[in-house]
């Protein structure tokens, strides 16, 4: 029997709860002020505009109140966090050169193996800095860029400056200002016109240290007619104090291009995961968010698509699983700002052992976005009488010529379904498992096989001991 | 917001003294005077709603300014206007009829047999004299309370007129009771109150109609309806809002349902300039059923903000909500609904549907159907759909010789028919069809 | 020791008593037809035997190979060789028929930690699909979701063939099927009976005698209002076809009026179960 710590987390159950001894090239003091921000900028040897950008963002962060809607963020002590931890001097292109202890971590997470097997490129971030980024040569030859964002700022300053902060301005929300002030690492992806990267790029984010704040910044630019599928995964050890992960992701999908962004979020259940993700889709472009949230203490994340030119499409698929002590508040926003734009949102949430899961979303149709269509479907499964499901969709429709639908259901696992499976010899917990897997199947089937298997495995892990 | 308070003070009407004067004019007992004063203090203490409050994000609270305030209850003098006489006569043989003009009762009738069986159907002032205990027990004590919001506190301090319906245990009233509120004094502030107390196993239908002829100066209405159903009671409540375009209203209709009760409610929103209405059902006893229907048709620049709550506090409860909003011209409708199922309220069925029809370029419809579910053994669904007139339907009708206007009217009637089919009050139905027709032509 | 022994089984659903003291003994190698008008309690009996939690046993017992069947969970009953072909199979969104079948067959065959090897499973599946003339594509669809009535029934029989039960309850498997489908189902069942070589017993619940032209029962029982009233040989089914339930009911009522005590009364080759 595992020892359960004071957070009520069974360390045996969360497979990625291990941590390495802390060995850092640089560790900032706790807390956030002008000095810390300037230190981050100078250690990165950044151009002046970025330094100014960070300081402007910090001011905004300090002035802006915490959001009062949604979950309670008052417990986060922004002064008790390490804002910058540099694990190694250099980012590597070969796993062999990555320091042994860090490499071991990623070996345990299976990243190098996945890269060899089925990825076009892989990145790995450890604390504040990317320690590894590599793109297979064939894609590099086609002009695809896959770097950590710090390197991109050095190597492709013009592209970064052109797009950085244009989709998510630093004033957007308090957590976005925070990220804009102290961002470090993240991925930069640039796909030239007409290039289809037909196997995924993956980045893996790992928090190791206690009281760590990770603030990666990702920027993806899809030139006209291109395609890319970017996948991110994340884990952290379990400590008795909380960690903060607050990323900003900006995506530009130009005419006729398509971008798919898949997240399998499995932070430890003491991580606050407060992320701003947004894409702009131009004429006939398609943006797809596939968002799986299993870990974290609290996740507030509403991936958005601004459809700004005719024919743009958005798809948001969201799976959330909240177990004991977890609050999953994911969702999505689709903004129809041009005629003949279309969006589909499918959300599946599961709450168990007193967890709270749900959907919070916005469908906004601007005047003139004629012929736009939006369909939102939210299904929730509550597995016991202590758990909770919330659905907060908002539809703001300022145009006549539209078709907007929203449907939601909340249910439990039906006794009839359980009985049917059990009448065929399947044990109660496995039957429950099958039904829950079936519930999320419409979204899981959208994932590449390897991730589908991973997600199903994580759900099975969460489901352990469901039937007493 | 302090600016508004300043304006009120300048008007010289909305003061503690005005509250005292109002109470004295009606020769109220000490407890009611104290109740009003306590509410006044709550009003002064409570903050004004701010545009940043979630509930007020879509309706500017500044609209409900209290300039030139004149709490009503004054005689207008002279004979009843013909329009009002017609409005009062429109209801065929009601079991009881209560007509108030500018918060003053001008007609009150109740079937003699029902009166003998203990039914009370009168204005609040009369009830306060004749049935003080009833009011002391139920008036803004358990259902809606003054401290909830600034407007409810103001209502509690300044209520006038109002209607009380008390149905004793086991009494069944088959014909509807009608309460008509008529405003034809410009620049009035009115605080209409409806109090329904349905005893165990009783049955009744109450129609409240709020009507005013077109006026010039703004009228502010701050209304509260409290509906309490004791075990086994069955109540149908129709709230008909046909204010003139000079009226702005903020109001709440809250019902509390005990065991095995059935409430069938219909809210009709046709009039007013800016109307913000909360409709809440609290299902407090097992076996309670609440049907909540809403019909809203906005034209010109009308603004309707409807907030509904289906609050399930007990097991084996059922709520079924359907709100249909049509908007035309530059009108705007907001439906925000919440189903909340509390821990332990198992075996609950909760349904919520919102359908919006946008008839013109420039009209807007927002839909915010929320769920907060803390029980797992339940059936809960909500759906929302917003669309324009279906051109194929129009084409089909026009191909049979209807003009485009006729066809549109027919489609809009069809849109609302699903609601009206569920309300077996023939007079009401034909009346609403006429009004929808008028709106289509306007 | 009988393979399945039902004694005085009394069952209620939401406080309404449906089954009022049922008795039946069934052995492997036998086919029992259970007939009766709608609402007589046939499906209740089937569901209770499989352990559907909606039904509460108020009184009585059921022994399966001498052991207390009612104490077992539904999955345990299935693993021990009991099977039910449901009248209304539920759909389970997102779960494919093939993964469901593989899990179920593995459970029945005692694979504990791992599933039956894919190759072996596929071979078995293909064989059974062929025998029952079922389109293989159907197993990649979700369990019963969007299936026609006939497809659902045939998939129930496929499951029966895959799980190789010792006692199978078929709950109105013939209802809603056209005559060709009834024949396919019956052929499948007869093949299973032949292959089982006396190791399969069937309780065939049906409203009509049509399927009994294809699957020959050794015994026929009739239920009215929650009780077994008449038992007999295959002739009883034919008699029912001639005279309808009303005819049998009339006979029973005459006998029940004559006989004072409770118990079995043998008349005209049939056993009437009189209860007062």
Care to describe what's here?
The complex is a heterotrimer of chains A (468), B (442) and C (276). Chain A contains 11 helices and 24 strands. By secondary structure, chain A is α/β, with parallel strands linked by helices. Chain A folds into 2 domains: 26-301, no CATH class; 416-468, no CATH class. In chain A, strands 5, 6, 8, 9, 11, 12, 14, 16, 17, 19, 21 and 23 form a 12-stranded mixed beta sheet that branches. In chain A, β3 (121-126) and β4 (129-135) form a beta hairpin. Chain B is an alpha/beta fold. Chain B has 11 helices and 20 strands. In chain B, the strands form 2 sheets. A 10-stranded mixed beta sheet of chain B has the order 2-1-5-8-10-12-14-16-18-20. In chain B, strands 3, 4, 6, 7, 9, 11, 13, 15, 17 and 19 form a 10-stranded mixed beta sheet that branches. In chain B, α6 (124-130) packs across α7. The longest helix of chain B is centred in the last third of the chain and has 17 residues, at 404-420. Chain B is globular. Chain C has helices spanning 42-50, 74-79, 97-108, 118-131, 149-163, 179-196, 234-258, and strands at 4-13, 16-26, 31-35, 56-64, 67-68, 82-85, 92-96, 142-143, 167-171, 201-206, 219-224, 227-232, 263-267, 270-274. The longest helix of chain C is centred in the last third of the chain and has 25 residues, at 234-258. Chain C is globular, with a radius of gyration of 19 Å. The mean pLDDT of chain C is 91. At the A-B interface, β23 and β24 of A face β19 and β20 of B. β23 of chain A pairs antiparallel with β19 of chain B, so a sheet runs across the interface. Chain A: Residues 47-202 form the SUF system FeS cluster assembly SufBD N-terminal domain. Chain A: Belongs to the iron-sulfur cluster assembly SufBD family. Chain A: InterPro entries: Fe-S_cluster_assembly_SufBD, SUF_FeS_clus_asmbl_SufB, SUF_FeS_clus_asmbl_SufBD_core, SUF_FeS_clus_asmbl_SufBD_sf, SufBD_N.
Q: What's the total helix number of chain C?
A: 7
Return the CATH architecture of chain C.
Answer: 3-Layer(aba) Sandwich
Q: Tell me the quaternary state.
A: heterotrimer
Number of β-strand runs of chain B: 20
Low-confidence runs of chain B:
1-12
Strand numbers in spatial order across the main sheet of chain B: 2-1-5-8-10-12-14-16-18-20
Our estimate of the beta-strand percent of chain B is 35-45%
**Global shape of chain B:** globular
